[in-house]
């Protein structure tokens, strides 16, 4: 059970502020390894992209309590809409490319995202899902090349002369919803689970009461193999925890037993994070 420390001196904070502060502090550490391309991403580079996307969303009048959706496999930019949303007080939600059509349509109706980021390979299917759900986000952004009526994610990464003046969202209400994840749907259609700023930070590292004791800001002992998308609460916790500790993640698009052992051999000290179905080949 999570209990609130009433003696805390901080009266305004947020999940986004915690992520921003730690990404800036750990800017020289490696944040992500992209398995398919061997791309190496530092926290500093990732933070720059998140700030630019956050500022672009603000230009589109996206802000506090607006729902920002995403549907994509894991890659270097898959977490950017999530983190950028927390920077401006918007609420990120992630739709998993692997769940059923019926579940996706139901969740779209439930969440009614104001803006959504979609991978190129999921775009055609998502157009069908949105039509069935009778949901039309104000903006649809595509990772990769986009059709004429949609915006390209690359447009969100253009430099902004006001980046250094960017102010991260803060709130005086720690129980305000910060993120929405979804239930498994094993006993019916998946349902939304609202997670507030306080709970997420307490469970993932406690930014509010105990700033982490940092010994060396340039090295980490292990990396996290991330197979789940941010649809899963476990992946959300893994992402937040990794940022607060300055840990690196290996982004894997899908699980492959042979490749799993190759990655473990490559990075030596690894912690795997994924759905139980990912591990089926081991049983």
TrEMBL record:
Keywords: Ligase, Membrane, Peroxisome, Transmembrane, Transmembrane helix. InterPro entries: AMP-binding_CS, AMP-dep_synth/lig_dom, ANL_N_sf. The keyword Repeat does not apply. It holds the Pfam family AMP-binding. It is found in: Peroxisome. The keyword Endoplasmic reticulum does not apply. GO terms for cellular component: peroxisome. It comes from the Eukaryota. Coiled coil: none annotated. GO terms for molecular function: CoA-ligase activity. The chain crosses the membrane at residues 224-244. Belongs to the ATP-dependent AMP-binding enzyme family. This is AMP-dependent synthetase/ligase domain-containing protein. It comes from Acanthoscelides obtectus (Bean weevil).
């Amino acid at each position: 059970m999570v209990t609130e420390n009433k003696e805390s001196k901080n009266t305004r904070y947020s999940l986004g502020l915690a992520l921003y502060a730690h990404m800036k502090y750990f800017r020289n550490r490696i944040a992500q390894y992209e398995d398919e391309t061997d791309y190496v991403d530092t926290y500093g580079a990732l933070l720059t992209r998140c700030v630019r996307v956050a500022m672009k969303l603000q230009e589109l009048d996206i802000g506090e309590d607006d729902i920002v959706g995403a549907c994509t496999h894991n890659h270097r930019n898959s977490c950017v809409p999530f983190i950028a949303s927390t920077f401006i007080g918007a609420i990120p939600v992630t739709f998993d490319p692997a769940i059923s059509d019926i579940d996706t349509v139901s969740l779209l109706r439930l969440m009614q995202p104001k803006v959504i980021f979609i991978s190129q390979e999921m775009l055609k299917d998502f157009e069908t899902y949105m039509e069935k759900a009778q949901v039309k986000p104000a903006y649809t952004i595509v990772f990769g090349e986009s059709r004429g009526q949609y915006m390209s994610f690359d447009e969100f990464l253009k430099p902004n002369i006001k980046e250094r003046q960017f102010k991260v969202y803060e709130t005086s209400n720690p129980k305000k919803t910060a993120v929405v994840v979804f239930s498994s749907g094993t006993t019916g259609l998946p349902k939304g689970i609202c997670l507030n700023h306080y709970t997420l930070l307490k469970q993932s590292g406690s930014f509010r009461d105990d700033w982490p004791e940092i010994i060396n800001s340039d090295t980490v002992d292990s990396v996290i193999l991330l197979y789940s998308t941010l649809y899963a609460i476990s992946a959300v916790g893994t992402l937040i925890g990794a940022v607060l500790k300055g840990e690196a993640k290996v982004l894997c698009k899908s699980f492959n037993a042979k490749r799993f052992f190759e990655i473990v051999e490559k990075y030596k000290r690894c912690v795997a994070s994924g759905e139980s179905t990912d591990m089926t080949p081991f049983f």
